[in-house]
Design a protein that fits this description.
about 350 residues; mainly beta; Methylamine Dehydrogenase, Chain H; 4-stranded antiparallel beta sheet; globular; disordered N terminus
């Protein structure tokens, strides 16, 4: 009897183990079946669509320039944008190595030059449809680029240094004060008269095309100029982080503080025949009219900063900045025209 009982128990245990094993195998099969059902093909359509867009949400526009019916914008993501229809449509150039582009300038001959943070100057010249780079051999950090009316290129840099070239991106010459400060901007209003500004309110000027420079009285309060523009050899403005703009009417011999409509930083200044404009943090876009600064009619209502600034002929101001934001705002004589704002919402 005992032998029969043991034999029956072993038989029951074997059946139980077999049933458990079969249940385990069924469960595993169901899990794999569910995983297979959930694993749909990877859809890269959105990624490819973003790559193929001329303007992307990742763009951080740093500079703008206009010449010969062409507009150029540069982004710190390594892209340069070109428009030949006053900003309605754009062609995107992804530059090799995705350089961090920090500024762009246009020359009177229609050439464009962009500057990156690795001390390279990128040329887009003549009928060329490509950007070609050359390195400025310097240990200094570069901050801005400007093409003078005589097509001489200027680059501002650290250690109170300026570089200039009459041969495009080749054969650079150096001027330095030998002081430990950054020149943040340089501009020539004609072939002879130019200004450079930098840390601690530093201002220098030239009256011989840059062959020599004179140190002028500093901007008050050791002002750090983020942007500068002169409309002629006597009249100019600088803007900075506290939202204030300082103006001069005597060739930078003295400066007067001018308030704007907000304390948002000023990152860009531009002057043309249509007016004087400033752009900055929080979508700031103001113009100088009747001796004071005020919000520009039709300015975009965006939170993104605006830094790149130029005019399209005399009819519109182009302002661009973070998040792929590009705004075309009619100037005062064309204020009844419709403003155009491109912001990537995707």
């Amino acid at each position: 009897m005992m032998t029969s009982w043991l034999r029956s128990q072993r038989s029951f245990a074997a059946c139980s183990q077999g049933g458990s094993s079969r249940r385990h195998m069924i469960l595993v099969s169901l899990v794999f079946a569910m995983l297979a059902a959930c694993e749909a093909p990877l859809d890269l359509t959105a990624v490819e669509s973003e790559k193929n867009r001329a303007i992307t949400r990742f763009d951080m526009f740093q500079g703008a320039a206009y010449a010969a019916q062409r507009l150029v914008l540069v982004s710190s993501t390594g892209a340069a944008l070109l428009s030949t229809d006053n900003g309605k449509n754009w062609q995107r150039f992804e530059l090799p190595g995705r350089p961090s582009l920090i500024d762009v300038t246009s020359c009177s001959n229609g050439d464009f030059y962009a500057l990156d943070s690795e001390k390279r100057v990128w040329a887009f010249t003549g009928e060329s449809n490509t950007w070609i780079s050359a390195v400025i051999e310097t240990p200094e950090s570069v901050l801005s680029i400007h093409c003078a009316p005589n097509n001489r290129l200027w680059v501002s840099a650290s250690f109170s240094t300026l570089y200039w070239s009459d041969a495009g991106t080749n054969n650079w010459h150096e001027y330095s004060m030998g002081d430990d400060l950054q020149f943040t901007a340089v501009q020539f209003v004609d072939a002879q008269h130019g200004f450079a500004v930098g840390e601690f309110g530093t201002v220098i000027s030239s009256q011989d095309g840059g062959d020599s420079w004179e140190v002028l009285p500093p901007i008050p309060n050791e002002f750090y100029p983020m942007a500068m523009v002169f409309s002629d050899a006597e009249t100019g403005w600088v803007g900075g982080l506290n939202g204030a703009i300082w103006g001069t009417v005597d060739g930078a011999q003295s400066w007067q503080r001018q308030e704007t409509d907000s304390s948002s930083p000023v990152y860009g200044l531009y002057a043309s025949r249509s007016g004087v404009y400033a752009a900055g943090g929080g979508g700031k876009l103001v113009e100088f009219s009747a001796g004071k600064w005020g919000a520009m009619a039709g300015a975009p209502e965006v939170l993104a900063y605006l830094r790149a600034l130029t005019t399209v002929g005399d009819q519109a101001v182009l302002a661009a900045g973070a998040g792929g934001t590009i705004a075309l705002v009619p100037t005062s004589p064309y204020a009844n025209s419709q403003a155009s704002v491109k912001v990537d919402d995707n």
